[in-house]
Structure formats: C-alpha cells, structure tokens
C-alpha cells in the first residue's frame, strides 16, 4: 500500500449497519483509499441475533476480530459514529499499534473522567433487564 493510500475502517452506530456508510465508501475509494465497513454483532448482515448479544464484547467482536487479523505493521484509521465511539475506543486500547488515527463522528468519546465503563453503566440504568 502506497504512502498516500490509507485504510479506513468504518464502524456504524446503534440501529445501523455498514450500509449506512455507502456514500462515504464510494468517495474514499474514488480518492484511492482502502475501505472496510463492518457490521457489528446482530447488525446489518452479521448473523448473530439480538438475544445472543449479552455484553459489549459480543457486540464489538467483529471489529476486534478484524483488528486482530491485520498483519503486523499495518495500521488503519478507525471511524466511529455515535455509540461506535465506544467500540473504536475499545479497539484503540486493545490494538494501539494497529491504529494510526481515530475519528469520532458525533460519537461518544471516553476520557479519563468518563471511561467506556461509565457509558455502559449509564446505558444499563436505562435498560435494567438487559
């Protein structure tokens, strides 16, 4: 891959799938970049059913699996929308050597005062039976 060619990994928000990125995918490819758009657990064409998602790790498994599959020395630009800010944050923490940049598109962006677990606890308070 040439120096100017970037590999973008697009991660959708809640109630979406990789399909939501179709226009951006076309634009990035037209500009000569590589693009991967993933369907998270029970979203888009991912075969998991919603009742099989019992934790955030089940939900982000496709992203983590993809990141683990990247060859050593390759890095990507992670782009997350909405709730995917949490997902790309987890991926950046788990695979720092494989991420050149994280882009948060109107997305949750954790920091030291509001780590990912804070959001998970807040979401659970709204849905206590999940």
From TrEMBL:
Single GO term (MF): methyl salicylate esterase activity
All copies of domain AB hydrolase-1, residue ranges: 7-126
Record Pfam families: Abhydrolase_1
InterPro entries: AB_hydrolase_1 (IPR000073), AB_hydrolase_fold (IPR029058), MES/HNL (IPR045889)
One biological process term in Gene Ontology: salicylic acid metabolic process
PANTHER family recorded: METHYLESTERASE 10, METHYLESTERASE FAMILY MEMBER
UniProt name for this protein: AB hydrolase-1 domain-containing protein
Species the sequence originates in: Quercus lobata
């Amino acid at each position: 891959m040439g120096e100017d060619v970037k590999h973008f990994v697009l991660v959708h928000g809640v109630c979406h799938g990789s399909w939501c990125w179709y226009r951006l995918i076309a634009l990035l490819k037209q500009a000569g970049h590589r693009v991967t758009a993933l369907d998270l657990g029970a979203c888009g064409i991912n075969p998991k059913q919603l009742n099989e998602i019992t934790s955030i790790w089940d939900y982000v498994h496709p992203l983590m699996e993809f990141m683990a599959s990247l060859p050593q020395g390759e890095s990507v630009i992670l782009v997350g929308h909405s709730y995917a800010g949490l997902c790309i944050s987890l991926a950046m923490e788990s695979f720092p050597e494989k991420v050149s940049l994280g882009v948060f598109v109107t997305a949750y962006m954790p920091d030291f005062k509001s780590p990912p677990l804070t959001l998970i606890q807040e979401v659970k308070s709204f849905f206590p039976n999940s």
